């Protein structure tokens, strides 16, 4: 699709009922029936939701059809995160449904999360009768207005005949260009009333013209810079995964021999086992990854947005680097760091074009990055990823997470919550394929993991799906274990239980003289366990396991892997003093990255 191309309409199935055509009278459907039929026509097979007064008509019809599986969640935020997990694990659009007022506002956190991380979801909310809008009616909320800053687009539908176009447009917008969440708010009378179901609908999206094909001269300029560079780095962001460009990235990296770093959102976009992979950059990235960006003379950013957690103090980030910035969203180009060569386009197409252009450029230029690799390999040897054993006799959380990854393997899916366990999961599990690592990167949403893992398991039922969660995060959305048990969604949950809000506690230790204010949770240390996660797991119909020593770790993980008739919850009691290293202090320069407390690596010589 180019800037001048028309937006494509959904392609209907020739055998599908209710289609309009020459000599065929369209079927008359209620608005609710039109919602269901439209979703089915778009290939949606699973939705997550919770009924309420403003969506009763939709739910009444959901129970009389079998084209779409509806999964009843225990909280609307769970529906939103499940839709995210579904989309992130499969690449398909996730769908969540909620009623008006508080049902819709409970989706807001998940919508904001999806917006920050470019996750394609469609959220369908009920709205009060159109005649009551603006009167402060029971459970009325202007959810279109509320979500406008955190969606790609929000629709308000008041007539049943407008529903097919709204649903089809939402699906298209969510899944094309830079993916993201779209909200469709539908009044109760629009759901109840009837209209002819016309498919495919005419889409009217003025101004929506995602650019996928980049300008050829910009691509050639980038390729020439790479051929001439002596210290290049491919800075790979989550956009590469969303564009399904991992194969193109691998081919490009191997052709050029360039070092690769993958951000928190891009873990798995490039195999961890590959010799050119330096690891994750950023606040808790590997030393080679952090310093490769800092000391590069050329950075090619592919689907990355120069997030503050990657750049550190932006005025001191990569001071000697020329920047090539590739992104499908033109708003990201030069937003934070000025791009010397801006390239707007889909990562899959642009990387393929860069590969061809580089092959042409090296016919007249001889690249030489051998000295650069010698330096980077030296950093790898001097600063390997590692951890110290706890001195309190409790488990090392890094060891637990490492063993989960090793015993499960790269075909598993790992959904993390937010905090220390998220960083350890990003560091110590080896990701070899895209869509295997799910997390809340931009918004940092506690409570993401369990429902996201649930959604991922629905999307990928043949894969092992782990929720790697903290004791704080787990208490925010663990009610979705009931959803998993009742709907036969056998996820595995590993609670990295340090009895505290671990990341906040780490910052309090390092930057607030050890004043641990309001971060103790009393979930696993000492005699009191509030709650007792084993009893909680059993109450939800899950298998509960507690692990307190290293010799129990493997057996517990193997038992979880062998149990597929219900969810599994493992309560790993880990040291609360364990910290995430390396670390770049917030607002500091990446050159001050600390390998451990009071241990900062030295810069290489020019």
UniProtKB/TrEMBL annotation:
<dbReference type="InterPro" id="IPR000399">
    <property type="entry name" value="TPP-bd_CS"/>
</dbReference>
<dbReference type="InterPro" id="IPR012000">
    <property type="entry name" value="Thiamin_PyroP_enz_cen_dom"/>
</dbReference>
<feature type="domain" description="Thiamine pyrophosphate enzyme TPP-binding">
    <location>
        <begin position="417"/>
        <end position="572"/>
    </location>
</feature>
<dbReference type="GO" id="GO:0009099">
    <property type="term" value="P:L-valine biosynthetic process"/>
</dbReference>
<protein>
    <recommendedName>
        <fullName>Acetolactate synthase</fullName>
        <ecNumber>2.2.1.6</ecNumber>
    </recommendedName>
</protein>
<keyword id="KW-0808">Transferase</keyword>
<dbReference type="GO" id="GO:0000287">
    <property type="term" value="F:magnesium ion binding"/>
</dbReference>
<keyword id="KW-0274">FAD</keyword>
<dbReference type="InterPro" id="IPR011766">
    <property type="entry name" value="TPP_enzyme_TPP-bd"/>
</dbReference>
<comment type="similarity">
    <text>Belongs to the TPP enzyme family.</text>
</comment>
<comment type="pathway">
    <text>Amino-acid biosynthesis; L-isoleucine biosynthesis; L-isoleucine from 2-oxobutanoate: step 1/4.</text>
</comment>
<keyword id="KW-0460">Magnesium</keyword>
<dbReference type="GO" id="GO:0030976">
    <property type="term" value="F:thiamine pyrophosphate binding"/>
</dbReference>
<keyword id="KW-0786">Thiamine pyrophosphate</keyword>
<dbReference type="GO" id="GO:0005948">
    <property type="term" value="C:acetolactate synthase complex"/>
</dbReference>
<dbReference type="InterPro" id="IPR012001">
    <property type="entry name" value="Thiamin_PyroP_enz_TPP-bd_dom"/>
</dbReference>
<dbReference type="InterPro" id="IPR039368">
    <property type="entry name" value="AHAS_TPP"/>
</dbReference>
<feature type="region of interest" description="Disordered">
    <location>
        <begin position="1"/>
        <end position="23"/>
    </location>
</feature>
<dbReference type="InterPro" id="IPR012846">
    <property type="entry name" value="Acetolactate_synth_lsu"/>
</dbReference>
<keyword id="KW-0100">Branched-chain amino acid biosynthesis</keyword>
<comment type="pathway">
    <text>Amino-acid biosynthesis; L-valine biosynthesis; L-valine from pyruvate: step 1/4.</text>
</comment>
<keyword id="KW-0285">Flavoprotein</keyword>
<dbReference type="GO" id="GO:0003984">
    <property type="term" value="F:acetolactate synthase activity"/>
</dbReference>
<dbReference type="Pfam" id="PF02776">
    <property type="entry name" value="TPP_enzyme_N"/>
</dbReference>
<feature type="domain" description="Thiamine pyrophosphate enzyme N-terminal TPP-binding">
    <location>
        <begin position="30"/>
        <end position="144"/>
    </location>
</feature>
<dbReference type="Pfam" id="PF02775">
    <property type="entry name" value="TPP_enzyme_C"/>
</dbReference>
<dbReference type="InterPro" id="IPR029061">
    <property type="entry name" value="THDP-binding"/>
</dbReference>
<dbReference type="InterPro" id="IPR029035">
    <property type="entry name" value="DHS-like_NAD/FAD-binding_dom"/>
</dbReference>
<dbReference type="Pfam" id="PF00205">
    <property type="entry name" value="TPP_enzyme_M"/>
</dbReference>
<feature type="domain" description="Thiamine pyrophosphate enzyme central">
    <location>
        <begin position="219"/>
        <end position="354"/>
    </location>
</feature>
<dbReference type="GO" id="GO:0050660">
    <property type="term" value="F:flavin adenine dinucleotide binding"/>
</dbReference>
<keyword id="KW-0028">Amino-acid biosynthesis</keyword>
<dbReference type="InterPro" id="IPR045229">
    <property type="entry name" value="TPP_enz"/>
</dbReference>
<keyword id="KW-0479">Metal-binding</keyword>
<dbReference type="GO" id="GO:0009097">
    <property type="term" value="P:isoleucine biosynthetic process"/>
</dbReference>
